Amino acid sequence: MRKRGRGTWIQLAAVAATAACSDEPAQQTTAAERGRHVYQNVCIACHSADPSREGSLGPPVAGATRELLEAKLLRGAYPPGYTPRREGGAMPKFKYLADSIDDLAAYLAQPGG
């Protein structure tokens, strides 16, 4: 193993500091990618990993509108005029997801999402 000189470590530290201070994000993510992350970490506990399929407790949710997501996640209700796919009220409110509704809607609007 080759020893690195002091200059090499200083150069590496300078590169690391430059990268850390950059205004450019390390990786751009789309709304649908962020929504997929939310879905995988929260929703699949009851809904299928494939949003177009029946889950263990919840119905398919592929194509769910922002309006539906907001009503169910924040208020635990359905939007006016909506006919539920299932009877019952097992789904709890998820108020902490208020800032993720647009992302979740973008993911569920995708083919296969």
Summed up, what is this model?
The chain has 113 residues and is mainly alpha-helical. The protein is 41% helix and 0% strand. It has helices spanning 6-21, 31-41, 66-75, 101-109.
Low-pLDDT sequence parts: none
**What is the H/E string?**
HHHH
Beta-strand proportion: under 5%
Please report the distance between the alpha carbons of the first and last residues.
49 Å
Biggest β-sheet: count, sense, barrel?
A: none
List the helices and strands and how they pair.
Blueprint: H1 6-21, H2 31-41, H3 66-75, H4 101-109
Helix pairs in contact: 2-4, 3-4
Give an account of the 3D structure.
By secondary structure, the chain is mainly α. It is 41% helix and 0% strand. It is built from four helices and no strands. The chain has helices at 6-21, 31-41, 66-75, 101-109. The radius of gyration is 21 Å and the shape is globular. The mean pLDDT is 84.
From the structure above, extract its key features.
113 residues, mainly alpha
